[in-house]
Specification:
With 494 residues, chain A is mainly alpha-helical. Chain A has 23 helices and four strands. In chain A, the strands form two sheets. In chain A, strands 1-2 form a two-stranded antiparallel sheet. A two-stranded antiparallel ribbon of chain A has the order 3-4. In chain B, 35% of the residues lie in helices and 11% in strands. In chain B, helix 1 (3-10) packs parallel to helix 6 (199-228) and helix 5 (177-185) packs parallel to helix 8 (279-295). Chain B has eleven helices and eleven strands. A seven-stranded mixed beta sheet of chain B has the order 5-8-1-9-10-4-11, sandwiched between helices. A two-stranded antiparallel sheet of chain B has the order 2-3. A two-stranded antiparallel sheet of chain B has the order 6-7. By secondary structure, chain B is of the alpha/beta class. The chains are: A mainly alpha (494), B alpha/beta (482).
Chain lengths: 494, 482
């Protein structure tokens, strides 16, 4: 069922906002289906019963709260049958935008029934509330369809427009894109690139790219607020919102850096260092924290929002952070820990006075753990001094200096060698395996699924662009939308 | 034709009964008619409860002989319901070591019988199985099932929660009582006090019904059209979505004879429900919602969790949970999970006792509520409601293993309309010191847990189901019947 793609929370929010001018709070929408790491994979994933029921409640409330504004926005200020006719026409237009296709005559007739007996303000508000329920609960809205034109294997013009629009803006096609689709212009790669560039310049386009980056970094959901009161002490009640805004701003600045490759800009940005939200983190909170000259903070990996996404509620989480880098940024898979691993680590007797790193390495030096830990743990140890919200801890509890250096193998390119987190960030920014991974992440973002064997050649072509441009996101997206594969219905098995 | 006759010609009596708005005004008349009919047996209901982590340092919940037993100190809040429960010790997660998984990861298969991969169950839990069957047979309420809880592990970026809709698809429970109330009760209309409806009221009600039906017609037709374009496999996958939409028709009339004894609970209100200081109010609100949703026949299947696998639960300050040092799991603080990663100590015992006793206290309060709330037939809810409370990890006083999946405590409340014999203690087959590595006793205990779930399925009318998930045993747990 790859031909169905459920709208994500962000896509739902964006679409509601664009079509009716308001959206429910993001966290009341059904949670997105996620792969273990990396961006959303909504292709072939359907809403289950509990999610449909939750949507019903949310959309019912949306209809109730938006009906007065929608009635005003409809421009229908008549009465009786004339008013009913006006509202019916407007309702059909709204449904067509929501469904990303023209309505069938039968669908139009069914919508008309909502307005029967109307014409008075009170009735019209109730009818519009019902309309919101009908349109936004409809599977034709909740799923983007990519069924194609007959047996050609190619998307219809409208499906192509929707694919392009949701890739670029997380929202439905606007009037210009729809017109281009209806004229058949989107068959032309250059036109698709032109439309993409136009949409990416919009506010929605810029926000969509921020969300893509945050999804890649595993930081698009709320994590800061989950930390313990002790950890959150001094950050203020709006820490999550403020740090999110700070990260988005930094991403926006990085993406705007035309001269610098995207990956280098993302992993080297210092745009957030002057933010008020970050200043609270930089200043430190609980005793013994606060940035020092040793911190050399730069890049999104050292941004509090990203660190919070890969740390426990309290205390450092080097294994979690290292696994994140290995799996999300290098696109490698780490096998699940054996069932007895935690017990073995706990029971290992270690000498007193060790640093945190020495202690953890001693506990995982046995044959059960050592093999896998060697490829990801050093990546996390580089970030060991950060607390769960990204404060720099000035020294190891043992009193010894931090040992943040490491080296891990890669299967594409040289081993990653580093002395510090900023050093590691720089190494990742220019590493071929990260560039390859970034290209496959963009593929997954665009198509809502992991690439399968039939997609290998196409993904390789995107990786070639990523390597050639040192990970420039616009270049990868350009190549993706201009490709013949962008025209096709989802292919076979993975 | 008079207005009244004209309106009545538009809507059938069935529609009248189903429609919320009409029930508001016609409820008293219809109820008095329905009350004359002989009252059938109460519908069967089930509540599945999962508590995370586990007692670890205590073997519970009881010890002694089948009839002469004492509750372990940590489970004492259940003392007043001793006659209504079956207390099982030394159980194991469903199919432990029969299907892969270990430690916290087995929490996801507690109610499913599928393996964990490594933390997400490979199949649906029985609340979903039962809900779908009831719905298919027209026996579900407005909602085939609800999944609620006091915290969600998956929502906070952790591993899976306790209940699953399919392979690897954990269901994030609703943890906000106000939202849960809104989902079930915001459309719920209390029966009108008295008096016949006016013509104006009937006209408005008939329009509301007509509009609601038009919306559902639109959605159902959209489902059909979309499914037709997807082929057989696609249509099959879309079926759950479309079936749920079809089920909305029932909620057009959250009204039936049952409303006679059903009152809408007070809205819990908006609060920061994630604040541990609200945990008592949050649990209490959910207990009220569970009882009301069962009494009002809005659902017959409730899945409830006090957190998902390895939940980092916190309680209000007054409980005095000691703060855990940083554990090898990386977390710390006055929370449940980090204590499961600490070596045995008096402080660890004290911390784990607080959590287990808290869960037992809440379960006891739920049973109180089920006893004191009558269903549509005037009988206490507990008469027809089976409560199954299982914990993620087991334990014993000498435990040196942090993630033991043997010695699991399970408590069942309710005699299931005479199906089960309560007031008993049953010792399971896992041995006192069964660690994650497992042994034959633990395997057998896991099989008994699978049989227990089959007993639940049979109680709920799924008598043709003989095994759960991927387990290798079939049939119910005969010992429950005495």
């Amino acid at each position: 069922v790859r031909t169905l793609r459920r709208l994500s929370r962000d896509e739902l929010s964006t679409t509601f906002q664009q079509l009716i001018g308001r959206a429910p709070p993001r966290d009341v929408l059904p949670e997105d289906p996620r792969a273990h790491v990396g961006p959303l994979e909504g292709a072939g994933s359907l809403f289950v019963a509990t999610e449909v029921e939750k949507l019903r409640t949310v959309i019912d409330e949306l209809g109730r709260s938006s009906a007065p504004d929608l009635l005003a926005a409809s421009g229908c200020k008549l009465s009786g049958d004339a008013q009913v006719g006006c509202l019916s026409t407007w309702a059909r237009q709204l449904a067509s935008l929501a469904f990303r296709r023209p309505l069938t005559p039968e669908e139009g007739a069914r919508l008309d029934k909502l307005f029967e007996g109307g014409g008075r303000s009170e009735d019209d508000l109730l009818a519009i509330r019902a309309l919101v329920g009908a349109v936004f609960m409809a599977p034709s809205f909740l799923y983007r369809t990519e069924l194609g034109e007959g047996d050609t294997g190619r998307l219809t013009a409208r499906e192509l427009g929707a694919r392009l629009a949701y890739l670029a803006t997380l929202g439905p096609p606007d009037a210009e894109l729809t017109m281009a689709a209806d004229k058949g212009l989107l068959r032309d790669p250059a036109e698709r690139q032109r439309q993409l560039e136009r949409l990416l310049r919009s506010t929605a386009g810029r926000r969509a790219l921020s969300i893509l980056v945050l999804e890649w970094l595993g930081a698009n959901e709320s994590h800061v607020a989950q930390k313990t009161p002790k950890v959150l002490s001094g950050l203020g009640s709006d820490a999550e919102t403020a740090l999110r805004a700070s990260a988005e701003k930094a991403i926006g600045a990085a993406l705007d850096t035309g001269a610098e490759p995207t990956l280098a800009a993302l992993f080297g940005t210092t745009a957030y260092l002057q933010d008020a939200a970050f200043a609270k983190v930089k200043a430190g909170g609980p005793s013994g924290t606060g940035d020092t000259a040793e911190t050399q903070r730069a890049g999104l990996l050292m941004h509090p929002l990203v660190i919070a996404a890969h740390s426990k509620d309290e205390g450092s989480s080097p294994f979690q952070f290292g696994a994140f880098i290995r799996e999300a940024l290098l696109c490698d898979t780490i096998p699940a820990a054996p069932p007895d691993a935690a017990e073995a680590a706990t029971m290992t007797v270690v000498p007193a006075g060790l640093t945190m790193r020495e202690d953890l390495e001693a506990r995982t030096s046995g044959p059960t753990c050592k093999g896998c830990h060697a490829v990801f743990a050093p990546l996390g140890f580089a970030f060991l001094p950060f607390d769960p919200v990204g404060r720099w801890m000035r020294q190891d509890p043992s009193g010894k200096p931090w040992d943040l250096a490491g080296e891990v193998p890669s299967h594409a390119g040289p081993p990653l060698k580093f002395q510090s987190p900023s050093d590691l960030s720089r190494a990742l920014a220019s590493h071929p395996q990260v560039q390859d991974c970034f290209a496959s992440v963009v593929y997954r973002w665009a198509f809502g699924r992991a690439p399968g064997a039939p997609d290998a050649r196409f993904v390789a072509s995107l990786q070639e662009v990523a390597r050639r441009t040192q990970g420039r996101l616009p270049a990868i997206l350009d190549a993706l939308v201009a490709s013949p594969e962008f025209l096709l219905v989802p292919s076979g098995g993975e | 034709m008079t207005m009244s006759r004209a309106i009545r010609s538009l809507i059938s009596r069935r529609d009248l009964v189903r429609n919320t708005a009409l029930m508001t005004v016609l409820g008293p008349v219809l109820r008095s008619l329905e009350a004359r009919a002989a009252a059938p047996a109460s519908p069967r209901r089930v509540i599945l409860i999962f508590s995370p982590n586990g007692p670890m340092q205590a073997a519970g919940p009881a010890s002694g002989s089948e009839r002469a037993f004492t509750l372990h100190d940590w489970w004492k809040p259940l003392e007043r319901h001793k006659a209504d429960g079956i207390f099982l010790s030394h159980m194991a997660p469903t199919g432990a070591r029969v299907v892969p998984g270990g430690g916290h990861g087995l929490g996801g298969q507690m109610f499913s019988g599928y393996g964990a991969a490594p933390y997400l169950a490979r199949g649906e839990t029985i609340d979903q199985v039962i809900g779908k069957r009831l719905e298919a047979e027209g026996r579900a309420g407005v909602r085939r099932s609800v999944v609620w809880g006091t915290s969600s592990t998956s929502r906070s970026g952790g591993t899976g929660d306790a209940f699953y809709s399919g392979p690897g698809r954990t269901i994030s429970p609703e943890v906000d009582p106000q939202r849960a109330w809104t989902e079930l009760f915001s459309r719920f209309m209390a029966p009108a006090a008295s008096g016949a409806p006016s013509a104006e009221e009937m006209l408005r009600a008939s329009r509301a019904l007509s509009r609601d039906k038009s919306v559902l017609d639109f959605l159902n037709e959209d489902c059909k059209a979309l499914a037709a374009g997807l082929g057989a496999e696609g249509a099959r996958k879309l079926d759950e979505h479309c079936t749920t939409i079809r089920g909305f028709e029932r909620s057009l009339g959250q009204g039936s004879a049952s409303l006679q004894r059903c009152t809408r609970p007070t809205a819990p209100g908006a609060r920061d429900w994630s604040n541990p200081e609200q945990i008592d109010a949050q649990a209490s609100a959910f207990i009220d919602l569970i009882a009301a949703s069962l009494a009002c026949e809005l659902t017959r299947v409730v899945a409830f969790q006090f957190g998902g696998q390895s939940a980092r639960n916190r309680l209000a300050g007054r409980y005095g949970v000691p703060s855990s040092p940083r554990a090898n799991s990386g977390d710390a603080g006055p929370a449940h999970h980090p204590w499961t990663h600490q070596r045995a100590s008096a402080t660890k015992v004290a911390a784990l006792k607080i959590f287990t006793t808290f869960y037992a206290t809440q379960v006891a309060a739920l049973v109180d509520k089920l006893k004191s709330t009558s269903d549509a037939h005037g009988r206490p809810l507990l008469d027809s409601t089976l409560v199954v409370w299982a914990s993620e990890l087991g334990g014993n006083a000498k435990n040196t293993d942090d993630h033991q999946t043997g010695s699991l405590p399970v408590v069942v409340f309710g005699n299931g309309q005479g199906t089960f014999k309560t007031g008993r203690y049953l010792r399971g087959k896992s041995v006192e010191a069964a660690f994650t590595g497992g042994d034959s006793g633990q395997r057998e205990a896991g099989r008994d847990m699978a049989r227990l779930l089959v007993s639940v399925l049979h109680y709920m009318g799924l008598t043709n189901v003989s095994r759960v998930g991927a387990t290798d045993v079939s049939g119910p747990l005969a010992a429950l019947a005495g």
